[in-house]
Amino acid sequence: MSREDKIVVGISIGDINGIGSEIIMKTFEDLRMLEFCTPVIFASVKLMSFFKKQFETDINFHGIDKIEDLVPKKINVLNVWKEHVDVTFGEENPTGGEYAIKSLKAAVEALKNKKIDVLVTAPINKSNIQSESFNFPGHTDYLAQELEGESLMLLISENLRIGLLTDHVAVKDVVKNITRERIDKKINTIYHTLIEDFGIEKPKIAVLGINPHTGDNGVIGDEDDTVLRPALDNIRNNGKMVFGPYAADSFFGSGNYKNFDAIIASYHDQGLIPFKTLAFGKGVNFTAGLNRIRTSPDHGTAFDLAGKNTANFESFREAVFSAVSIFETRREYNEISKKPLQASRKRAFLKKK
Ligand SMILES: NC(=O)c1ccc[n+]([C@@H]2O[C@H](COP(=O)([O-])OP(=O)(O)OC[C@H]3O[C@@H](n4cnc5c(N)ncnc54)[C@H](O)[C@@H]3O)[C@@H](O)[C@H]2O)c1
Ligand SMILES: N[C@H](C(=O)O)[C@H](O)COP(=O)(O)O
Asked: Do 262 and 242 contact (CB within 8 A), yes or no?
């Protein structure tokens, strides 16, 4: 397989009744995208031809039956299935879930076997994907099982990175999931990803509190004092620049978030509400900490817009750019790390980022 040195970007189709197909095609309609990456869409040529007609685009696909046959400078479509599939835009139904998972499983297999360099996932619906063979609340949890490493859901944009201590966890279960072990693992992951994937030499990390006003000395809950503070003190004593816990309510409004390379929120909405308020449409969801790279847009299936040709594709395009950029930064970091005597090269790498 001649890849002409382009990074191979595998793309899972997501829920076929959502906006996934539209944002993928809008992204690759711009043929300049093919100058720095080779896309492979995991779906079927039949299905993609249906979408092409639906959205009246003149995009050209190159159908392949084996990943080894992919061609650089083409928008490759790997036939993961051959049968006709009914698309019913805007409908949450079992077909949408079934084919989303077929596509995702094939793409993750290719990622594990290094047939693709990075994976960019189009959005899935968390309800219709559930089955006996797939019982995960999202991509992050599935990838954490399939790949190696300690995963972290990390939302990134040009000026903001927010990671989550607990991600797809019901609010009633958040507190019991915030353990010393989890805090150590998540901080370790964000620390290493900032250095290795983003080239930041001495990362500064802020952590948001669990309770309102970080508990106000135990008046509104004591977990900030009994669990979070001791864990962060220990991490600090071991040399990492970790700050907080900060009261979450004023952290973004005050502008304090601009002083850090990344912010760790205690639970999903504490982190994702400010992120999506500040960066929606341009943000990227990166599964950090694993031995392979996966990104996705910062939004979901948007069934209300599906089939209408009005969805914004910029976040998906950013997800492709980010995956490629993280892949290159990590590769460079790993190459330099293999030659520890070249310390000056490593310093230069970290400074130039
Ligand atoms: N990466 C993923 O697979 C992913 C991410 C987020 C949500 N989801 C899932 O998607 C489903 C729907 O979730 P939701 O309704 O909470 O969020 P959503 O992001 O699908 O929609 C929220 C709002 O944002 C709008 N919106 C979303 N994407 C847009 C785009 N590209 N252009 C313009 N407007 C856009 C929608 O029209 C809607 O009004 C849920 O099952 C959720 O779990 C999946
Ligand atoms: N929490 C993510 C968001 O709101 O954007 C989303 O649910 C995606 O999760 P996965 O990447 O795990 O599918």
From this structure: no
